[in-house]
Each structure stands twice: as C-alpha cells, then as structure tokens.
Design brief:
The chain contains two helices and 21 strands. It is mostly beta strands and 310 residues long.
Length: 310
Amino acid sequence: MLRSSIATAALFAILSASQPSMANKLPEPPTTSFIGDGQTTIGTSLSTEGKPSSGSVRSPSPDSSSGATVASDPCWYTPVEPQLNDSRLGGDAPTSGILYAITCPEAINLSTGKLVYFGNGSIWVRNGQPLAPPAPDPGQIAEQASGQITVPLPAIHLGPDAGKLAVKVPIWLWVDSPAPLTVTVAVRGLAVTVVASLESTTWSMGEPIDQKSPLTKVISFNCSGPGIPAPAAPDPQFQPACGYTYNWKSLNDRTGGSGSWSVTATANWRVRWTASNGTQGQLAKKLTPSTSQQVTVGEWRSTLVANPGG
C-alpha cells in the first residue's frame, strides 16, 4: 500500500472560528514540527502547534453580549518586514501599514491534542484598518486531504497465460480495478471532498530495443484505466488495446543471468475535489504507486507430426 504523505492518519478535524475553546483560550507556546514522514510529495506544509511565534497577534472583535474583547478569529498574524517594491503592499509605502504572515488552525494533532497551524500566505493591513481572517483555500485543503488517501499497489496480470509468454505473440495487460477512494475534510466551515480514481496505467516491459544495447529499454506506454482482462481463448494474432508483443526471448545472456524481463506497472490516480462553496478542481500531481514482476519469455515452435490422424 502507498500513502501519499501530508498528514498523519485521522489528522484533520472540523475547526470553526466560533468554537468556544478557540475563542476563550489562547494556544500554548509553539513546538515546531513537520506533518508527514519526511518524504512528502504533495502539498508540503510547515506547521506549528500552538502560537506560531512570540511576535504574533490575534485579530480581536467585540463581544456584543458582554462588551469584552475576545479572540474570535482563530488565525495568528506575525508582522514581517516588506521587501523592496514588495507587490504584496499593493503599491503602498511600507510605512502606511503592516504586512502580516498568516497561520491558521487547519487540524488537530490527535496524538497530542494540540492545534496544528498551516501557513496561509500574507496580508497587507493599512494603518487604521482591522485584521480579517482569510478564507480557507479549497485547493490547499484538497492537497492536505489527499494525504489521507491510501491507494493500493497495482496487481499485475498478463494473459492469457503468464506462464507461457512467447515472442511474436501478443500479451494482454491489465491490473485490478479498484473503486474510487473518497475523503472529506472540513476546515473553518469549508468542507472539501477529494476523490481519487484510477485514470490510466503506465507499462514498462523491460526488454531492450536491440539486444546489442541491453541498457536501452523499450519506451514505456500508457493504457486507459486498468486495461482489459484477456478472454479465455483469445486469437493469438489479435493485438489487444492494452497489450504488448515481445521481440526478444529472456535468455540468460540478455538478462544478466536472471532469465527474465522486469515488467513494471504504474497506476496513475487522478485526484479531483469539490468544495461546499461550489468550487471544484483537480490536483496537478497524480498518485502513482507501482509494482514490478519478473516474466520469462520463450518461443513457440511448430512440430510436424507424421500421420496425425492415426
């Protein structure tokens, strides 16, 4: 099984700006940590547990019931020094406001019970204007949610008989066809549903283009979806939509002594998302687990038999 790592299992939880524990109790001092296993490939995010830094502030708002000022905005704002001709200032002079880096609670670390904060970019606040919490980014949430999806390794099938592969005879190729996988994550009132579906399969058949250049392999190719299983008795001359015909037997002197070619199937899972605010999209990076299998390729020979009928 392959886990596309963004967050630990069951990490995400619904957080709301009106949540009592968020409004009346400030988080504990920070402990910086990375969410993931150190080999993140999708949606890398640096997060902190607790208040992001000693210079961060909360955006206060009046409590109409008591007249007291409470922190109803769950995000933290850290003043940062603008760069020369900083486009984030919208053409304003650096002295006409404050540039804040934003970190908002996007999850709860279930192993510690502490809030987990993710970077939400920056905001330019002109002098005299109030801070306003940024809306959650559904695309970013979708990337984080994809880290909870565990896609299966592709199970390689070659037919009609994987034990009797031969040169010049078409081979049917397919993998198991799992159902789409779905995860829903809610962040500060925005729910995002992520669906991963097997879109195509990439095959690498292991044999060289020319036996005189064993390191130059045949180019890999794609098949739509999982491919099509071989029928019980296919025509040996029929080329399937997802198939391959070997040109070289897997002799020991061609395969480094293994007597087999290495077949690799990579399942390409497309990740699409829809959000409760009506937006939708798909992640640029697919989930791509792969499996390899050694196959022996021989040769079929015809034998003349005298008096076959008697």
